[in-house]
Structures are given as structure tokens and as C-alpha cells.
Amino acid sequence: MKKSLSLATALAVASLATLTACQQDNKAILDKLAAIDKRLEGIEKRGVGAAAGQQRPQRPGPDPTKTYGVPVLDAPAIGNPNALITIVKAYEYACPFCEKARPTLAQIHETYGDKVRVVYQPFVVHPQTATLPAQATCAGHKQGKFKEIDELLWEKVFKARKFEEDVILSLGKDVPGMDAGRYATDLKSKECEAWVQKHQQGLGALGVGATPAFFINGRFLSGAQPFPAFKTVIDEELKKAEERVAQGTSADAYYRTWVIEKGLKRLEPPK
Fold first, then answer.
1. pLDDT of 95 above 80
2. Region at 2 (left for phi over 0; alpha for psi -120 to 50; beta for the rest)
3. What CATH number labels 77-260?
4. Helix (H) or strand (E) holding 141
């Protein structure tokens, strides 16, 4: 088999991983594909199976059966702060799958009401386009206007494909009650840069490598999954939470007690 075909195979396999999520955009991925191509070519020469049957090595990720202690204190949230279910969404504004997940989250809010809150944490996989929007959410959050800025970023930036700095800066003027001057200053501040980087690093330490990614009371769910996939995990976690509250855990301490304190703090190395 020709080398070009083996590289095409590697690219095709790699593309399957992006069906429900946006992968990190960097040179390392291209280097890995080139290395895989060389390995496939070597396998062909040794006669150890067809190249088309080879699988791209998978990046280690969070174990969906385990609980991860994802901090949420300085991240914007929508929903009851004392909800028994906390969903952390790792996302960015240049990822179509993140936008695709929005109606599902709306359905979750409608279905579960005060039992669920969604916490939003930036994880930038397209740095050239999504970094400044992430900092815009920091600026909006500092004025208690995350929800409004989030909506504008999807409607006026993502859907219009207008990621220019002047467009993002202008959003502060479109939110009632927002100090547009403070928003513009905060958006480009070192503080908001550090805020985005902190969440990026924290999520990365837990194995997140694509968006959207979700932690439902610390349990991982990858990609823009349909509502039933969320419902299965939410219902399991809600049953446990209600039992623990009945046994004495206060609702306002539930996430801290059973997720933050007892959950894993980093991705475990593969065995």
C-alpha cells in the first residue's frame, strides 16, 4: 500500500474522534499523524496486518466511571447554587459542537429545574479565534453579566463568524447595565488572561483534550451527546445525592463534600 494511503487512513481514523467534539488545534497533532504514518508503513513491510486495520493511539482521558473533583468557585454558573447536580461544561466559542450542546443544556434546565446548575469553564482548542471570547466571559462575569455576554458571543460572534477584536469589544455596549469601559479593560487584562489559563490547565490536568466536555457531579461525559446520555448520568447522581442528603449532608455542602473533597484531583496514569 502506498504511503499516501496509509496517511489517509490515519487521518480518517483521527477524524472519527471529532464527530461530537472539537480537538485541540496545535502542531503536535500533525506531528503525531506523521509518526503514525511511519509506523503504519513499517507494519506493512513486516507483514503484521493491513494498515487500514490499525487504530490511532488514543489520548488518555477521564474515566466516566470515576468522580473528579472539579473546582467551581470562580467560574460562572447558571442555575440554583445549591443544586444537587452540578454540570461543569468545558467549552469554547469557536467550536460548533459546543454550540450544538446548548439546546441540550436548555432541555436539562427545563427538565430538572432547581436540581441542576451548569458551571462554565473555558477550554480553548482554537487559540487564534477563541482566546479573546473566553476572556470576554471573564470580563462579563466580573460584572455579573456572564449569561448576557455568553448569549451575545454565540449570536454575534460565533454564528456571524466575526471573531475580530473590535466586534468582541463592542459587546459590552449591548448589555443593559454593563459598564462598557470596564468590560473593555477587563477583557484584555492580565487577570482575565490568567483566569482563562487557570481553567485551561485545571481541566487539562483532569484529562480534558477536546470540547465540549462535561463533568456531571464529577463524572465525565465527552462531546455534544444527546439528552438521554446526560439524563442517564444525572438520574444516577441525583438518586445518590438525594439519599445522602436524607442521611444528613446539607444541600449547599453536597458538591464540596462528595465531589470536590472525595473526587480525583488529576487524571490517573494508564495502567
1. yes
2. beta
3. 3.40.30.10
4. helix 127-142
25 confidence band (pLDDT: 50, 70, 90): low
Q: Where in the chain is the domain with CATH 3.40.30.10?
A: 77-260
C-alpha cell belonging to residue 82: 445549591
Name the 3-class secondary structure at 142: helix
- Statement: residue 247 has pLDDT above 60: yes
Task: Please return the burial class of 136, using the count of CB atoms within 10 Å of its CB with bins 0-12, 13-18 and 19+.
Answer: buried
> What is the end-to-end Cα distance of the chain in Å, rounded?
34
Tell me how far CA of residue 149 lies from CA of 38, 108, 124, 136, 211, in angstroms. 46, 21, 17, 7, 19
Cα–Cα distances in angstroms (integers) from residue 15 to residues 29, 55, 133, in the given order: 12, 12, 26
> What are the φ and ψ backbone dihedral angles of 73, each rounded to 5 degrees?
-60, -40
Question: Would the pTM count as exceeding 0.85?
Answer: no
Residues 6+ apart with CB under 8 A from 95: 21, 22, 125, 126, 130, 211, 212
